[in-house]
Amino acid sequence: MTATLVAAPSLEDLLTRSGPEAVALSGAAQSAWNGQVIEATGEVLGLAHWDGTLYLGDTILDPLRQMYERSGEQQPIPDLVRYRESLATILHEQAHFLGPAGATQEAARGAFTQPGGRQLEEGVAEAWAQDHLNEFLTRLGVDKVAPGINDVTSGGYYPAYVPAVRILTTDLENRAGLNRGEVLNALNRQTAEGQLPLLVTLLYNSSRLPDLDTPAEAVEVRARLEAHLRNALPQLDAFELHPPGFAAARSRSTTGALLTHLHTELQASESAHTPHPTACALPTPATPATPVTPTPSRLVPTPHHTALSALAPPTHHPPSTPPTRANPHTRNPTPARALAR
Description:
The protein is mainly alpha-helical. It has helices at residues 11-26, 58-69, 77-97, 105-112, 117-139, 142-145, 161-176, 182-188, 192-205, 215-232, 244-271, 303-307, and strands at 30-31, 37-40, 46-48, 54-57, 98-99. The chain has a three-stranded mixed beta sheet with strand order 2-4-3. Strands 1-5 form a two-stranded antiparallel sheet.
């Protein structure tokens, strides 16, 4: 049986359904959203508050009010882009509320404030929202309210965090033979409390170390991997307020260096389990039963011998009898290759 998707008839209905649809779309066990939406003033676009309240600014809500006022109409592309950006913000903020069963906002907040926690969670939420926005809009029936909205593209946010997340997750998927998007989806189903530990676990398990390490060695390697991540991810903050192209380029270079450190750490830990080859002594040669006559040392040829080594030695003729000259027509010259050393 195929479920029938019913378009949200109003903005209020869309906001009410946005939380449950985000949970269903992500496969997360729960959402910390308390169902409240408060219109924020000032420069706030969207905020997933730790108390479970969703705050949305008028720059997000006003375009959606216009969208419903013109429901079903063909609308200009710039307007469709504005609607799409507003809806992407809602999905991004709802992603922050997602988590595994039993996760608490208190624990998530503590992990979010640790080095690397905020950069990773914001990058994961934004990358995941970008990848699943069309499906989210279809689930809410927005493509019926604003025809063509799934055919336009819009810019995203966090240009320094998103490339880093994509590089890290793609590398892990390649190393572990996972499907595209599988690691990003798994991270998005965690709160900040579980995201970085999950990333460390996936890195560690992508190597041969689970079959080689003792439990104590595994703890040490995982701690070193976590230290690399917590040291590198906060460096992305320096690029976040730059133009998107520059921020993305610097993010890629920084994350590339991070991957080098992570791979080197894993390879070095694996090498520690590889036994180093030891020098082997050659066996003493056996004494032959019959004495061997020693071979005289090779004589070094004189320059005269060397120069004439390829020629036949000259024939000695007595002085009284001059040598007979060969018939010039039957002369057989020495081939050039015979003169070669």
